[in-house]
Amino acid sequence: MGMEIIIFLSVGIFAGTLAGMFGIGGGVIIVPALIATFIYLGFDQVITTHLAIGTSLASIFFTGIASAYSHNQKKGVVWKIFYPLSSGIAVGAILGAFIAGNISGDNLRYLVGIFLIIVAIQLISSFEIKASKRESHSISSVLSGSGIGMASSIIGIGGGSFTVPYLRYSGYEMKLCIGTAAACGVPIALFGSLGYLYTGWSIENTPSMSLGYIYLPAVIGISATSIFSAKIGVAITHSLSDLVLKILFSLFLIIGALYMLAI
């Protein structure tokens, strides 16, 4: 149990720092780490991926609040685009959890890897696009939020991998994209984790100290350190240029994708 807690605390440090830097929830780190940890602990491998995703989303809720608060303190959140996006995200995240319940663990991992590679390629190809303020229509933002929430919930991430490129293409500068994505990660995590709690509630082979597909010791351990390390990530973000952030973000996505496809 001691080694288990050390792993969860360490994962929280990395996840929180990345959450602050890139506006993500840290799920790309949390999900693979939890899958490996759950296998090591002898949990039923049939449910390890679903358990890792549900637990990741529950952890991201707390990390996301800390990250969003820090970004907002530096005026890095565009609230006028957050509200329509988050309303769509709420519906999409719940729907995504129910869809994931009908997908095998292996296929879920492949989905994570493929999605991240696609987003990284799209972001890299748009390096020369200059941000130009454009008003976003509420309806399109709600629909986009639904897609972001659904995809993020299915693969257990805070949505920054999708929200950042969407906001970038909408004309916002990188720092605002990252801060707003961090805020959007909160409703994704909240409604997504509630969905996994519900869909996993009747599953008999979940470990003790679980609520559905949410493993409470991991949530507590990861959240304990990620809340504080998120502030470090935010400070790093606001000290770097947009170009450097985009390059780092793209490399991060590619590394995460290759890792998920390899495990």
Q: Short description, anyone?
A:
This protein has about 260 residues and is mainly alpha-helical.
Tally of structural domains: 1
Report the sheet with the most strands, covering strand number, pairing sense and barrel closure. Answer: 2 strands, antiparallel
Radius of gyration: 17 Å
Percent of residues in β-strands: under 5%
Number of helices: 10
Backbone structural class:
mainly alpha
Helix content: over 70%
Residue stretches low in confidence (pLDDT < 50, at least 5 long) are none
In whole angstroms, the N-to-C terminal distance is 24 Å
Widest β-sheet, arrangement of strands: 1-2
Give the overall pLDDT as a whole number.
Answer: 85
Q: Which outline best applies?
A: globular
Q: How many beta-strand elements?
A: 2
Q: Can you write the helix and strand succession as a string?
A: HHHHHHHHEEHH
Summarize the structure in words.
- With 263 residues, the protein is mainly α.
- Helices cover 76% and strands 2% of the residues.
- Strand 1 and strand 2 form a beta hairpin.
- The longest helix has 26 residues, at 48-73.
- It is globular.
- It starts with a helix and ends with a helix.
- The relative contact order is 0.24.
